[in-house]
């Protein structure tokens, strides 16, 4: 035997006696200077920067609330200029110091600064034109808007009109230039609120200020529901999937692709199916200004019946605090009707859960709004929404999608696979089990194998349970069963019981994607007391990202896991072995099975 000793040396260095065990103190001596479109800040490092390490500073700013953030790296930075600001506008600014301690940022220092009035005309070089006035905004179908305005300036020279517009509450502006006093804008989203303004400029270079902003809502695309409509947030569903994040909410919903590498977001609800990896996510940090976010559906019109069934799948991170609310908003009305509200703390967490709501229809045309909101400004949460669907009529068991079909419970009785061996192999025989019930005894060396696809599907079930009553003949243990690849080298799915010290044993669940992994992977392991020579009943339940062990009819332990994929792909050449893991990996059992060793699937 060769013993290899690994020596690890720890090097501890101290840099300027600075420590990083807590967040730094805030910067000091903050001063500002404003121009018409910029604000310059000066500051000094925290008084304690020689003791508590400062890695840099953050500057947040905005009108009313500091909604935009800039990160400056380095303690040596002591000034910064915020540019492209609006003239004659008061900004709220928050300044912090940061390091890599748990809290990261110091307390915020809030200040306000007002930009100067913009002087557009240098020494009255140009004549100031009168500002046009928007007199009419006419929404049309397909997101088109006609804009009309009045110009009180003399028609003495050629004039051009500059029209700027943006989604209400957004700073991203688009521009159209025309020589007419009206214009058709045809690149807008349906059912969205926009802001418009216009100015005039003549051929001599004279120009006006922009007009006062006017707002208008584009006509929504109304989706008529005769039977049902679905949105899974994939590209092929774009027509019925025109959801958008409320621009007036501080938190924004985002479309997530769970196939992106190194993503810390949850796996999609139906993992392993091509083109089924997208869903919507809403995250809230401890920033006190980011309190809620709303996801808004397109307009729906239900033509028949007085009820409709709304279903969606919801993911709630286990650390979430706050509330989850679903509203119905009637067309051309400001009030919202709450149809569902629950605290995150009371909802199922760390896996996708289906929510079905049977709703009495009170309005012909309506939107659905999904909201995540903090209870306290310091709360954090992360929630996901996928597979949104509306069906005319009541919710009932006859309306199923792929996922609900998977919830129908079926099972495979593994002992049914050994009946022929009982009659033809002396190493497999009937015996008495627990309480005198029939059981099957299997000795080491016998190979019991059947084609996997003769009994189980090509894509293994998303949620399942393995139930067994066994009596081990010795402490060597082995595999209760194993599903192996064509070469008998990788265990796709299996359960083993092995010795773990003088008085314990280990139950392990194998779960491997044989298409892209070269070694057998253990999804979860549990330490249990020694069960040799005794009839023992246990079950392993796999439900989304949790593996639960039930031992002697009691819930014994739960382990949170990350499965990828959520449904194992199995080829026609996969084989199912009973009481072993094939001729190469082997580890056969000498064991008695009571007549209830089954695998349940949902």
TrEMBL record:
Give the UniProt keywords, A-Z: Repeat, Signal
* CDD domains for this protein: FN3, MAM
User: Got a GO cellular component term for this one?
Assistant: membrane
- Using the record, list the residue span of the signal peptide; answer none if the entry has no such feature: 1-17
Which Gene3D superfamilies does this entry report, sorted A to Z? 2.60.120.200, Immunoglobulins (2.60.40.10)
InterPro entries noted in UniProt: ConA-like_dom_sf, ECM_Regulatory_Proteins, FN3_dom, FN3_sf, Ig-like_fold, MAM_dom, TSPN-like_N
Q: Fibronectin type-III domain location, by residue?
A: 23-117, 131-221
Keyword match Ribosomal protein: no
Which residues does the UniProt record annotate as the domain MAM? 229-397
What the entry lists under PROSITE patterns is as follows: FN3, MAM_2
Which SUPFAM superfamilies does the entry link to? Concanavalin A-like lectins/glucanases, Fibronectin type III
* Pfam families the UniProt entry points to: fn3 (PF00041), MAM (PF00629)
Entry protein name? Fibronectin type-III domain-containing protein
The record lists the lineage as: Eukaryota, Metazoa, Ecdysozoa, Nematoda, Chromadorea
